[in-house]
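Give me structure tokens for this 497-residue protein.
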Amino acid sequence: MFALSGNHVMPVFDAALDAGLDLVHVRHEAATVHMADGYARVTGEVGIALVTGGPGHANAISALYTALAAQSPVVLLSGHAPHQELGRGAFQEMRQADMAAPVTKASWTVGSADDIADALARAMRIARSGWPGPVHLSLPTDVLEAATQASVPAPDAFAPEVERGDIAQAAIDALSRAQRPVIVVGPALTAFTAHALPRDLADTTGVPVAVMESPRGIHDASLGAFAEMLAQADVVALIGKRRDFTLRFGAAFPPECEVIEWEDQISPIAIVQQLIARAGGQRTRHHAWRSEVEDALRYRPPAWQSTRSAPEGPMHPLTICTELQAALDAHRGSILVADGGEFCQWVQGAVNAPRRLINGPAGAIGPALPMALGAKLARPDALVVATVGDGTFGFHASELDTAVRCGLPVVTVIGNDARWNAEYQIQRRAYGEARAHGCELLPSRYEGVAEALGAYGERVSRPDELAPALQRAIAAGRPACLNVALDGIAAPRISRT
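Here you go.
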């Protein structure tokens, strides 16, 4: 359980000793949710976060939105003012369940000690059923301190709801009739336990499958030139995906295109599994079209191969990506965790990492470092590398202290261009270079921050320094931070025209 201490949850901290429950004690409440999110995406289990009430609860809420958009099963447990004091000016009294409701699948306050076990089972069940996502429970201190004879529910009470009946045949019929069908799946299919399903679905149905998990939508560099092919589709099946802004609210495909959708109460994984089970005999029907779409998904501009950084630095993002690729390839089962922002868009598009976590459709920056720690706890033998911008690093830099205390040797690579580059690029495009302002940062020595917290730190200024620096960071055997001088250019937009 990922936790940050506070008055309202001290009963849980005390009880954890007798229960033998490990608490990963972090430095900011939002980090508890991001770590639980990373852990959940890697394991497929529910990630549990615990924070105190009032401001502690409020600090955690923004991270719930990232988990919600990424379809990640997380349960946030928040301490809460006691029932008997509500409405009388209790310490840190807030309407916590109401605050969390818009960014969760469900949010409520537990009424009594007898209800806690059933509430937790229900919360975990909701988090994993249908489209996965976060759930919040507020736990008043008088509830936590009360005696109860309630028993723990049976394991089935915690399990996700099972889909029953036919949820695939109509989609199979429509896809088989199509000339240019496409299946688009959402973030639930990027969880490590479901990672092979999109490829199995394409191989079984013969229909090309694209995975969308970025706020850049059809302009996500990870998707290559996919937007050009989607614009030609005659049938599109959206699994765990809405016709939202990432698909231009449906304008990404032709007006006459038939769109197949399922309600969010139906599990995307169950849909894919049923499609695979019922799609026999269809796999060669769309061979040529599938090849075209998959070629587009793999497409990267030829100029990327010849892009070089100046010998004296700063580095083009592609130079950093090349060295990251080599490091990840050298370690079987490595995990890449990429944040948002311009630098990390290059990383997502240019680094081929079969096992990766990204900030997700919410588009919020900052979660990569705590998510990487959650991933490392789930896969302690894997090399875990987090990439962040210099602005992003400031959100959760203190979690390097958590990494040191917990013995989590994650490697963090900071692309340092001394500005909030995504916003700077927006200003340049919208208002002109002369009106770009308020995005400046200092070329700070973040590696020194890492060293002060007990991690390995190194500044990298030149391209020829990067590969050996990565090797030293990986070999350090403790959390490591590379502060890399970055050429702050705009994120890529890929087109073959």
